[in-house]
Amino acid sequence: MTTTPSSATRRTAWTLRGLAVLFLTFDVSIKLLQLPMAIEGTTVLGYPASAVFTIGLIQLACLVLYLVPATAVFGAVLFTGYLGGAIATHVRLGNPLFSHVLFPIYVALFLWGGLYLQEPRLRALIPLRR
Questions:
Q1: Those residues with Cβ within 8 angstroms of residue 50's Cβ, 6 or more apart along the chain or in another chain
Q2: Contact 44, 36 (CB under 8 A)
Q3: What is the Cα 17 distance to its own chain's centre?
Q4: For the chain, what are the domain ranges?
Q5: Contact by Cβ (8 Å): 52, 42
Q6: What is the pLDDT of residues 24-40, one digit of tens each?
């Protein structure tokens, strides 16, 4: 049995998803436009400048899938893999825990948290209460 989420739950879901989408749209944009800040940030992490556009395309594909209701969960799964790679990169470089290593987890929590609150099938699959 699924219940209709309250208006507060719906607002919270849209806020969480909206914040994640805003950040990811910004990140995709600077990579696809190959702005100097994206190139510098990527090379500092040990990736070649030539990878910036490709990384941006991968992010864009994940974002589009996440924004389409029928494929939102699939997009979140793909983004989770992408964000896991970001975590591994920061761990490898010895970057600070809370500001760098855990930042992709914060983004994932917004992606999944908003989706969890909106999608009854996801709540049925992963119940937080018994």
A1: none
A2: no
A3: 9
A4: 7-124
A5: yes
A6: 999 999 999 999 999 99
